[in-house]
Design a protein that fits this description.
alpha/beta, 4-stranded mixed β-sheet, 46% helix
Length: 491
């Protein structure tokens, strides 16, 4: 795989992180995390919610974790099952073969878009209950084995109980409900009660959201509580995320950007190990850059990708910890179609070139993850499927077609379209997309693809049938949601 940094760059960046953590430190509104850091050697001001890290403390941690065998991490994280596949886990495999492996087909698991793209009207709107139910039906029919998860489309629901409302939609409409994305630990006890009512024993059905720092160098109260809960369960890696913007809440340069994100991750990882000494460490870098001409934030521009890849490479070389520089998903495309899919593919394959691990191309989002489109999801599933042709091909004697080659000779009178060998093998050997256009982009071709995809979405939703026999547990679960509404102050 390619490298973006030189050896001397690692040394410079490492000194920068040590300096920032010692001089500035990390701000976190959680006494338990601060106490853990103090036990580990940090200088803590509880009144200011601030921890400073002596350089010797950080160096010792970096040396220890770099020398640590990461194979037990992989074994523990494998227990997360399907959850680890999603980019939001932040997990990157440590053992890589140098061979390309196509990412899994994207599905409606945990989608963070709050806007819904109405593909028929070709316009976006704030997602609502009707949109979310539509997505559940679509997901159930498109990928029945994967089921349907949480899409943040219930914008009319109070944030305090939004995951519970999403759970109710899944349990009423999905044949394979996959669970919800939890932002506030107070929601968990109510979700566990609902899970018990329905006989759900998956500890990840209430999936604890990644811990996203509030750059520069701080963590808010709710995220800190979630982090402590995550560590104490023993179910998760210390999975962090960072979404700062160069020139806004981190320096405009690649080096300054890498120092901020790395310092945030190091501070949190040290806190994690003070509470759970053997917890695996993971991270997701989704930093962006600012267009100084127009003020737009871009996650998929060349300079943004460079910062994310450089940060991931620095952490890998300095600490031995693999973090994900994200996927193709976070691009600025705001309209559905081939261009959006190809823009994501370029970003994903750039990440693959510098990490040796091919991330997902896209999950159906537009506008850097703000908006979700069923049509775009279909197109990106098909483009993802095409990547299998970059994996090791099936090479055997039968595939060579030696007899056909001998029969055709120099091809003066015949060609391979006339041969039985072509008829026998072309379906397996050719990419035959149902929606994506192979003939290049034109406005007409793009419109044809979107119309065909939209027909498929409608066809799948029309074939959906609601699960039967859940009336009694649904009634019990609704009572739990109403109690949560009162106790969590949701009106």
């Amino acid at each position: 795989m390619y490298r973006i940094l030189r050896d001397q760059d690692i040394e410079v960046l490492g000194r920068g992180v040590l300096e920032v953590l010692e001089r500035v430190g990390f701000h976190v509104e959680n006494r338990e995390l601060l106490s853990a850091l103090e036990r580990g050697g940090a200088e803590v001001d509880f009144q200011e919610h601030r921890a400073r890290f002596p350089k010797a403390m950080t160096r010792e941690f970096v040396d220890a974790v770099r020398a640590e065998d990461k194979r037990p991490w992989a074994a523990r994280i494998a227990g997360m099952g399907e959850n680890v596949k999603t980019v939001y886990s932040g997990w990157v495999p440590y053992e890589r073969t140098g061979e390309l492996a196509a990412p899994y087909a994207p599905h409606l698991f945990h989608q963070l878009a709050t806007f819904y793209y109405d593909d028929e009207r070709q316009e976006k709107r704030k997602g609502n209950r009707e949109d979310y139910i539509h997505l559940i039906k679509f997901g159930d029919m498109l990928h029945p084995q994967a089921g349907s998860g949480h899409s943040l489309n219930l914008t009319e629901a109070a944030p305090a109980i939004e995951p519970l409302e999403a759970a109710m939609c899944q349990l009423e409409y999905s044949h394979h409900p996959r669970g919800v994305y939890v932002q506030d630990v107070r929601q968990i006890e109510f979700l566990q009660e609902i899970e018990e009512i329905f006989g759900i024993d998956d500890p990840y059905w209430h999936w604890v959201a990644n811990i996203c720092t509030t750059s520069p160098l701080k963590l808010d109260k709710l995220a800190a509580e979630r982090f402590v809960h995550m560590l104490k369960t023993g179910l998760y890696p210390a999975k962090l995320a960072a979404m700062p913007v160069s020139g806004v809440n981190m320096p405009v340069t690649t080096g300054g950007s890498a120092v901020i994100v790395a310092a945030e991750f190091l501070a949190m990882w040290m806190a994690a190990r003070a509470i759970a000494p053997d917890v695996p460490l993971a991270g997701l870098v989704i930093s962006a850059t600012l267009d100084m001409h127009g003020g737009q934030v871009a996650f998929g521009a060349y300079d943004a990708l460079g910062r994310r890849i450089a940060t991931a490479e620095f952490l890998r070389e300095w600490t031995g910890i693999e973090v994900s520089p994200s996927i193709g998903e976070w691009t600025s495309a705001c309209r559905t179609g081939m261009f959006a899919a190809l823009e994501k593919a370029y970003a994903a394959m750039t990440v693959a070139a510098f990490t040796g691990y091919h991330p997902e191309i896209g999950l159906g989002h537009l506008e850097s993850g703000l908006t979700l489109s069923p049509v775009q999801l279909l197109i990106e599933r098909e483009l993802t499927d095409g990547l299998r042709f970059l994996e090791h091909p099936n090479i055997d004697e039968a595939s060579l077609g030696l007899e056909a080659i001998a029969e055709i000779g120099f091809g003066f009178d015949r060609n391979f379209l006339q041969e039985d060998h072509t008829a026998r093998h072309f379906r397996q050997a050719s990419w035959l997309p149902a929606f994506f256009g192979r003939n290049g982009w034109t406005p007409e071709e793009d419109q044809r693809i979107k119309e065909k995809s939209l027909r498929k979405v409608k066809e799948l939703v029309a074939a959906y049938r609601k699960p039967a026999g859940r009336e009694e547990p649904l009634a019990k679960a609704r009572a739990v949601v109403e109690r949560a509404r009162r106790e969590l102050g949701a009106g």
